[in-house]
């Protein structure tokens, strides 16, 4: 097994897509969900999510391979496998920036901030909370249920994990490695969500200059507060700008139409290939610009020769959050714990490849089930909670109006 051969990634993707296609046949709920989302305005982005989340898994699988052999956790020596993780995260940030900035541009001052806040909480936490519980239980199991930290310290650790930080749990070293430390990106997402109203006041609503100054101060303060725990890096946050640029691009019909042409497809793929082959890091100026070119074209509705419109790929996109959040733990179980139960050497190249093939299929099965039975019910619960909030807000008004009428 060499570290530079992209064939391994291609095989893993094919296995994931095949597993997804099989699940769509076996799970009527999944097939129905894909049918309902098939006419999405941003169908190409839905498909892109699937490739990105699974790319992060492959990236961490390669990191795990080198860790098993050397005991060192580092980026893969191959630009391609390094970018499968970094470029995927940068594009995820662009998707977030694009979707929510597009909504701001469309709705303006009518934007429903209450619905936005509720939807984000019920999107992130229904799956994250069970995973967090699993991580804490796993740590105590590995430590034979011995309590090494005080109660207040454990409470602090729980609160930190609830905000997507990853301090060591009960003195277990590198506790975040149980999930490949994937939650660091959620801190950036949360910062963007919290800053979005202030950004809207500065760049879209455009009030008095004093309002602009106060909002900029608020954004900086928020950056410091969130960054106090998570050490937010400005060049990572720059990825969101690519998505915001795409939001303006697609509002011009001529530009969006060009983005769906064959020449645009070639340019998008060329930009992506350049990033994946020439650059070791995604969060620098040139690779971010190239990724922005790629993303702007995809956001225009370009399916990249149909690769983003396959039903199986769109399902991978639907379960991308589960795939992203759970893959680290699945990888840890399969690569580092399974060898203790079933005697085999994961440092053997062929055995590791076979293990990753099984892991690729298993991950999509687990992600599909957690989406259907945890994520989607959580999203639906958020809608019901929002409806309950609105009803409770309206009822006092109706009672007051009725009292006035009775007088």
UniProtKB/TrEMBL annotation:
Stretches that traverse the bilayer: 6-27, 48-68, 80-101, 122-142, 182-202, 209-226, 232-250, 262-279, 285-307, 319-338, 350-374
Alphabetic keyword roster: Acyltransferase, Membrane, Transferase, Transmembrane, Transmembrane helix
Acyltransferase domain boundaries: 43-367
Any GO molecular function: acyltransferase activity
Pfam families in the record: Acyl_transf_3
Protein name: Acyltransferase
